[in-house]
């Protein structure tokens, strides 16, 4: 026996899906998504989405890379290979800057990629929405709203009625 993943509804135009997203957001749903074949300006605000947390991962990666570079050069100059050349000190941030700069960029890039993978729960080799019979048009000319059954407000009849009032077509329940 298959478990119900949620309900999917199709919309034909950008204004239809935009206003439907506002209605779903205003109804208080929290576990839902919109599937479009191209970016729609302002849709994230219509869905009530907050800013991404990926920049936090990037900042932590950059700070870690910078501190790693500075620490490495300090350790190498002060302990591992202490060498005084021309009366210069064992450590100077000026000498460590090129290494720190490169490690900042490298660690930021890796932290951004891994943060994005973590937050998006990737790699995801399969998604139940792909089972929807009308989903083949998602990359062509239709827009979809999917409301998950894991949402606290989810009730199959009420959710279906909300999507119908919002102008949804081909409303189907999706199995996992």
Short description:
The protein is an alpha+beta fold and 176 residues long. The protein has 5 helices and 4 strands, in the order βαβαααβαβ. It has 2 domains: 4-51 and 126-175, no CATH class; 54-119, no CATH class.
Any idea how many domains?
2
What is the share of helical residues? 40-55%
Average pLDDT, to the nearest integer?
Answer: 92
DSSP summary, beta strand count: 4
Poorly predicted ranges (pLDDT <50, ≥5 residues)? none
The secondary-structure class comes to: alpha+beta
Distance between the termini: 10 Å
- Element pattern in H and E: EHEHHHEHE
Q: Could you say which overall geometry the principal axes of the C-alpha atoms support? A: elongated
Radius of gyration from CA coordinates: 25 Å
Strand order of the largest sheet: 2-3-1-4
* Alpha plus pi helix count: 5
**Range of strand content:** 5-15%
Report the sheet with the most strands, covering strand number, pairing sense and barrel closure. 4 strands, antiparallel
Overview of the structural elements:
By secondary structure, the chain is α+β, with helices and mostly antiparallel strands. It has two domains: 98 residues, no CATH class; 66 residues, no CATH class. Helices cover 47% and strands 14% of the residues. It contains five helices and four strands; from the N terminus they run E-H-E-H-H-H-E-H-E. It has a four-stranded antiparallel sheet. Helix 3 runs antiparallel to helix 4. The termini are close together. The model has no long low-confidence stretch (mean pLDDT 92).
